[in-house]
Amino acid sequence: MNQWSVSVQKMIDWIEHNIENNPTLLEMSNEVGYSPYYCSSLFHKISGMTLKSYLAGRRLCYIAVALRDTSDRIIDIALRYGFSSQEALTRAFVMAYGCTPYSYRMEPRPIKLSIKQVVLNPDKILFGGIGMSTVKEANVRFEYIPAHKYIGIWDIRAKNYGDFWKYHNCDEVCGIIDSMRHVSLEVVGCHQAGWFYENRQKGYFYGFGVPCDYSGKVPDGFEIRDIPASTYLVFFHPPFDYLADNGDVMGKVENLAWNYNPKESGRWWIPGGYEWNETICPNYQRHFPEVLGYEVLRPVKKV
Q1: What are φ and ψ of residue 2, in 5° steps?
Q2: What is the C-alpha to C-alpha distance for residues 30 and 203, in angstroms, rounded to an integer?
Q3: Tens of pLDDT along 220-253?
Q4: pTM here?
Q5: CB neighbours (10 Å) of residue 275?
Q6: Is residue 76 within 8 Å of 89, Cβ to Cβ?
Q7: pLDDT tens-place string over residues 150-205
Q8: Distance between terminal CA atoms of the chain?
């Protein structure tokens, strides 16, 4: 099963690198080393979708982003991603998103983009890792995050990332968030999630930050909230090998974060005299293993 996942991930990565070259099943099978039929059936078995539907969805995703973020002619975008004409693209675009490419360009709206699939992850690694361990000790620092708004799904039933996806469709939620990248705010970092408190209960949220003056559309099922400025204690681990060490790294960071006493820090570079400010501001989570690492941000205020 592990080798099958590796092979399908190679197919997915190959599609991403060749999406503008009108990739065919035969070309991909030559690259992966399996017959076209075996590639097709293996892809369906591991990913849960047909190769044809996945490729069509990814093409339309790239087209939507090009319409939103560039001034290229619609016909040029259509031809770049394998459509024979602008009319053919319009038919596919309307069927997928309920609007024409032109109307989407004039007024980008939340749509369900088809995100890149990841079938090779720590949960599916049956033995060992790749390369030497990159696990270090978790550490802590201060960070100030200005006031902003946050558009997300706030679910009091969910207590963590895994819980959240028991109640929500990952592909749909992530696709909608990707379609809103042009208005998202990076002040809260490379993450889309975190924890919040409501009536003394802890829940989990997933979404994206926007500026304080944002007045645009909020996707169906999402809610926008005002987040005050705050100082945060950031519990972090530097970049690491995701496949080999993700579980260990997250465990170390979260163990430090949830057991830390801000009143008496015990760290010479982090003064004490603080308390948690979690009834006002959420806890944020940043997970970008190979570039940023893993971070949990907890808001604090002076005692």
Answers
A1: -65, -45
A2: 47
A3: 999 999 999 999 999 999 999 887 898 999 999 9
A4: 0.79
A5: 12
A6: no
A7: 999 999 999 998 899 999 998 899 899 989 988 888 655 545 799 999 988 999 99
A8: 53
